[in-house]
């Protein structure tokens, strides 16, 4: 290895370390601040270690209400977007060339629309029939783009589906509905479960769209953002730490499951 | 369409079509068309709606064009989003290249996990993390003061804070598409270029980047769109001097009380994003189907 290469490599390792630091510093500092006695969340100066902020968070009724609101919204978003996304994927895959690319462009367009615009458009449409911001509109506005994610995940799974399975079932006398229920749906199951998980996450973490259609509701993200502006205490950090822990455990579990599945698939793809 | 009915039978096929129609017509097209209708009408008290003054005009769009402050904020949002996109690209490219071409299996596995985990965390919380770091009496100022790099605390909130928070928020949207694109590049091509005497920068410029252009376009499109439409980062990390166009839109709806003007502003933002998407895809000759993966 030449001298220039070595310098280059050292620089890169340095860069990598900086990148890792940039990635994790905000999360670590935010989490650490929830144990600091200081009234404003910070880590410098450290005024003593305490669990009081977790108690304060636990006792905060508004926080529990926000959590409940988010959970209700996420539930209905999943109930709407899984069937609609699956239907969209099935319709899309049975269309031909031109119609298909047109439908595809229309179906992914919500992903290319800024979240605030989705919220605004929903708010304006429903005002015509006298419905203002609230739970209903939050669910509708969120579902309108979360359906895209479900659609994309189901389409990806459908590409590996072997249609001869359906034909075999039909040949054996199953009705079309039975074929759908017993052959296609079980095949789609992993994609549906994964997209349900993704939908919950997207719904919980959405802020831009929700902000415009929330009416007088306060989902968790709005609750946190409001706290930051009106009176941030480390109780919010305590909540953040718990949410980070839950999402990290969920993300790691999902990633491990995905890798195991990949490995199993690879093993199954070996010559028969 | 016929295939759908043949495959699933009348009932099920109709059910699917109805669901898709509700989604695309009721939740995607109708809201946007109604927004356009709103944007083209004047803001009138309920009693005068439908009256002689209630006619279509471009007045709400003209207002944006003539109002100096809003116009400035709009263009600032455009170029600041472009800056966010460029910075995110520069930050991500070396990592993406390393992950796709150099890292060992174990390193790659750790790197992917380390990247994905922070991005499962809520955007509001990630921004809150930056809010705490950048606070006037926060850790960043304390460390820089301690090292003697600065003499008095710096107010990071404002343009710099928004940039740091946004780049952070969109790293994954830039990194993963580029990583996927570079991964499919044969190592032999890079080696061939090197054996023929190409310096490092030219290998990237002539071999890696052209190969990865679809991924780069995808990453840039998403980052730009997310940045231009962002609300959290400017609201929490910004200062009055770094207002974002989305904040102006919000004010029309919930403080200014002029939904028609707000609708026009929102459509301008939408048009900007679609324009950037289409132009980028055309320049890089990328298909929409490659973008939304």
TrEMBL record, chain A:
Location in the cell: Cell membrane
Domain ABC transmembrane type-1: 67-254
Keyword Transport included in the entry's annotation: yes
Predominant location category: membrane
Keyword field contains Transmembrane: yes
Membrane topology: Multi-pass membrane protein
GO cellular component, as recorded: plasma membrane
Domain of life according to the entry: Bacteria
Record's protein name: ABC transporter permease
Species name: Paracoccus siganidrum
Lineage: Bacteria, Pseudomonadati, Pseudomonadota, Alphaproteobacteria, Rhodobacterales
TrEMBL record, chain B:
A single GO cellular-component term on record: plasma membrane
Record's bilayer topology term: Multi-pass membrane protein
Domain ABC transmembrane type-1: 74-280
Main location as per UniProt: membrane
Keywords on record: Cell membrane, Membrane, Transmembrane, Transmembrane helix, Transport
Repeat in keyword set: no
Superkingdom of origin: Bacteria
Subcellular location: Cell membrane
Transmembrane segments: 12-34, 78-99, 106-122, 128-150, 162-182, 262-284
GO biological process, one term: transmembrane transport
Protein family membership: Belongs to the binding-protein-dependent transport system permease family. CysTW subfamily.
Listed name of the protein: ABC transporter permease
């Amino acid at each position: 290895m030449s001298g220039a290469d070595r310098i280059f490599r050292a620089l890169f390792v340095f860069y990598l370390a900086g990148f890792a630091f940039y990635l994790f510093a905000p999360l670590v500092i935010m989490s650490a601040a929830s144990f600091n006695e200081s009234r404003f969340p910070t880590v410098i100066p450290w005024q003593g270690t305490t669990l009081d902020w977790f108690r304060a968070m636990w006792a905060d009724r508004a926080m529990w209400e926000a959590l409940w609101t988010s959970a209700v919204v996420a539930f209905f978003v999943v109930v709407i977007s899984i069937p609609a996304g699956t239907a969209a994927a099935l319709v899309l895959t049975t269309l031909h060339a031109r119609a298909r690319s047109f439908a595809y462009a229309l179906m992914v367009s919500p992903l290319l629309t800024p979240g605030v615009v989705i919220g605004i458009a929903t708010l304006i449409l429903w005002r015509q029939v006298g419905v203002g911001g609230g739970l209903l509109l939050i669910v509708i506005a969120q579902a309108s783009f979360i359906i895209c994610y479900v659609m994309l995940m189901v389409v990806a799974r459908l590409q590996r589906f072997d249609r001869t399975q359906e034909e075999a079932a039909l040949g054996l006398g199953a009705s079309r509905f039975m074929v759908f229920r017993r052959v296609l749906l079980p095949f789609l199951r992993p994609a549906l479960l994964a997209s349900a998980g993704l939908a919950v996450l997207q719904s919980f973490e959405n802020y831009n769209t929700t902000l415009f259609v929330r009416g007088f509701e306060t989902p968790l993200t709005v609750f946190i953002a409001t706290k930051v502006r009106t009176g941030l205490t480390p109780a919010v950090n305590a909540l953040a730490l718990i949410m980070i822990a839950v999402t990290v455990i969920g993300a790691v579990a999902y990633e491990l499951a995905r890798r195991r599945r990949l490995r199993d698939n690879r093993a199954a793809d070996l010559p028969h | 369409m016929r295939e759908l009915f043949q495959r699933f039978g009348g009932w099920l096929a109709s059910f699917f079509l109805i669901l898709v129609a509700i989604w695309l017509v009721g939740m995607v097209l109708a809201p946007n068309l109604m927004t356009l209708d709103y944007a083209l009408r004047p803001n009138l008290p309920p009693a005068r709606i439908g009256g002689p003054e209630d006619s279509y005009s471009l007045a709400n769009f003209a207002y944006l064009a003539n109002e100096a402050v809003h116009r400035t904020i709009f263009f600032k949002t455009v170029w600041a989003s472009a800056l966010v996109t460029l910075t995110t690209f520069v930050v991500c490219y070396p990592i993406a290249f390393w992950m796709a071409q150099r890292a060992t299996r174990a390193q790659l596995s750790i790197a992917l996990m380390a990247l994905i985990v922070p991005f499962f965390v809520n955007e509001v919380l990630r921004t809150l993390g930056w809010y705490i770091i950048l606070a006037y009496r926060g850790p960043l100022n304390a460390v820089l003061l301690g090292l003697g790099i600065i003499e008095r605390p710096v107010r990071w909130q404002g343009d710099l804070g928004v940039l740091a928070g946004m780049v952070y928020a969109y790293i994954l949207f830039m990194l993963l598409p580029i990583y996927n694109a570079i991964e499919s590049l044969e190592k032999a091509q890079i080696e061939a270029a090197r054996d023929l005497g190409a310096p490092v920068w030219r290998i990237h410029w002539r071999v890696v980047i052209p190969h990865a252009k679809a991924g780069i376009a995808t990453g840039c499109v998403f980052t730009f769109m997310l940045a231009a439409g962002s609300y959290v980062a400017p609201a929490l990390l910004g200062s009055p001097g770094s207002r974002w166009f989305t904040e102006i839109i919000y004010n029309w709806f919930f403080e200014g009380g002029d939904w028609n003007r707000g609708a026009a502003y929102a459509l301008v933002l939408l048009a900007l994003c679609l324009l950037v998407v289409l132009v980028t895809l055309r320049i890089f000759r990328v298909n929409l189907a490659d973008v939304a993966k």
